[in-house]
Design goal:
Helix content: 25-40%
Order of helices and strands: HHEHEHEEHHEEEEHEHHE
Radius of gyration: 17 Å
CATH architecture: 3-Layer(aba) Sandwich
Strand content: 25-35%
Number of domains: 1
Bound molecules: S-adenosylmethionine
CATH superfamily: Vaccinia Virus protein VP39
Structural class: alpha/beta
Mean pLDDT: 93
Strand order of the largest sheet: 3-2-1-4-5-10-9
Largest sheet: 7 strands, mixed
CATH topology: Rossmann fold
Number of helices: 9
Length: about 250
């Protein structure tokens, strides 16, 4: 059975999606990185219960396609993360083939779901074939190296990291506390340079890494030092890139 079963889907919907960084920092950073997405056709890979698909709808997307391998996550998304512009599809993203390419592709955490560099390459190729030329890619991911001993539990999650310098494909654990029910995820680490190389080798350019940004509204809403650790010692980033035209390949 998939790790992402009905219990995790429910905890995700009722807890993880409501954490302050998901409410403010994540949509704000997507907005900063993507610019105006009004009317655009968006792909949300590994959409889970639809947190990011809903963010895209709220940012004005013309249409959103959420793709996820877990039927429990997709069922939950269809139940209560709906909006007229969103369509959910249950399939392995590596096999996804859109009827026509999307304007923009996003995903929160598909990178850390890949267990190997090879699988990460399959995901990157799926993004490439399903995007229009010059289409933008923006992926939120955990890059937790150098966070050994850093406490992010006030943000609703904490890491269990291997000792020493992390290397590609190292597994680490992410514990997310939601309403006293703990979601435990086992994820993979990939370095900045590996992610950059895979993107550039597979037809993307202008690769950039941006730590999650916190909007003014979020500073006003939370205690004055709440966001300090996330800003000073970030573990969550967006990697963005543009699909090259054939003449640039
Ligand atoms: C950590 S959750 C993130 C869900 C959602 N993007 C969010 O940010 O709330 C990771 C998701 O990746 C999905 N996933 C893992 N491997 C996948 C694959 N090969 N194709 C599509 N989805 C996949 C899981 O089913 C799960 O819903």
């Amino acid at each position: 059975m998939s790790l992402y079963d009905a219990r995790v889907a429910s905890a995700y919907k009722t807890g993880v999606s409501l954490l302050p960084w998901r409410r403010w920092a994540e949509p704000w950073t997507y907005h900063q990185v993507l610019g105006d997405i009004a009317g655009k056709d968006i792909l949300d890979a590994a959409c889970g219960v639809g947190v990011v698909s809903l963010m895209m709808a709220d940012l004005g997307a013309g249409s959103v396609t959420g793709v996820d391998i877990s039927s429990a996550m997709i069922d939950r998304a269809k139940l209560d993360s709906t909006a007229p512009v969103i369509n959910y599809i249950n399939c392995d993203f590596s096999d996804y083939q859109a009827a026509s390419p999307h304007d923009i592709a996003v995903s929160s955490f598909i990178v850390n779901e890949a267990e190997t560099v090879e699988q990460l390459g399959l995901f990157v190729r799926a993004f490439h074939r399903n995007l229009k030329v010059k289409g933008k890619l923006a992926l939120v991911l955990d890059i937790p190296d150098r966070l050994q001993g850093v406490d992010h539990s006030s943000y609703g999650y904490r890491f269990s990291l291997p000792e020493g310098r992390m290397k590609d494909e190292d597994r680490f654990k992410l514990y997310i506390d939601v309403d006293k029910s703990l979601v435990e995820l086992e994820l993979s680490y990939f370095s900045y340079s590996t992610i950059r190389n895979i993107l550039e080798e597979n037809g993307f350019q202008e690769v950039a890494f941006t730590p999650l940004m916190v909007p003014e509204e979020a500073h006003r809403a939370m205690p004055s030092d709440y966001w300090d650790m996330m800003i000073c010692r970030p573990g969550l980033f967006v990697v963005s890139a543009i699909k090259m035209s054939k003449s640039q390949l």
